[in-house]
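Protocol step 4 of 6: structure prediction from sequence.
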Amino acid sequence: MISGRRIQVVTVLSFCCTLLILSASHSGYAAAPHDALQHELDLTRAALGRGDLKAADEAVQKALHLNPASPQALHLHGLVLLKGRKPTEAAEEFVRALKVKPAFAEALNDLADVYAAQGKSAEAQQALTKAIDADPKHAESYLDLAKLYESQRDAPAAIKTYQGLLAVQPAHAEALFSLARLQDYTGDTKAAAETLARLTKAHPKHADAWYLTGRMAEKRNDLVDAAYAYKQAVAAKPDLVDAHYNLGFIYRSQGKSAEAEREFLEVLRYQPAYAEAHLNLGVVYTSLGQLDEAEREYASAVELKPEYAEAHYNLGVFYELHRKDMPRALAQYRKYRELGGRDDRVERIVGSTFR
């Protein structure tokens, strides 16, 4: 009897061990496809990142073979199709991914991009709103939704959306700049100035923020603050020609000829065909008594931009007052008049010449 019991115990133990082995084997079998799927998804993302659509498609097809219902694989397949300029098929894949995983912020955002490109603004707005609901910190969805509102000229909704993003990411540079730009556009200059101050404090090298700060300071005739802001802008981005130009114009108005010359020359170093910079440089050289250089700059402005009425006027004044050459002056005044220019002094000087 004892011997029989021992046989039974051994048999039971053997059976249990067999079950454990089979169970472990089954677990390993289940883990392998998951690891393989993740590997193909990673390969797809890497290939998309380097712009290799062929490799991305091969990897995502393998992922879909391993799990046709994987929302990540469906989403990535949609991205491959989108990069391959197949937006309709891409949207279908995004929708399939969302059927499996409705709160999939990235898929919703990418679906919204397709809808927006197709002119389906309402559908895009709905998808982006769902994306934000799914992930309240999904910055890209806030930005896309705000830009969508801007394209619809709905500034209040765009402002509110940018503020929503800043509530979760207070130092988000693009949101801060876009918000400040909209606040300035809608006339809320105080709020715009405060937003720009936040932006330049968090991102001291944000050239566009400094440039907008300078523009706003100029509008309120605060030339000291404007000049400071423009100097910060060009320090951050030396080829920001409009900042150089505006700074040069401020210096010219303040009688700082050497500083104005330097800034206008910087403009022309980066953009030689900037007619307005040539004109203002001509004014600076005239004030310095460098008449040959002044004439050259005035003539360049007229040549580069023949429809530039002010350039013709300034060249006419130069010929009249500094070259004492009335025929050439009258030719420039005539062109100035043809382009719509009106000046009482010119009318008095030329009289019936224009009639």
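Step 5 (inspection) to follow. The two ends are 137 Å apart (CA to CA).
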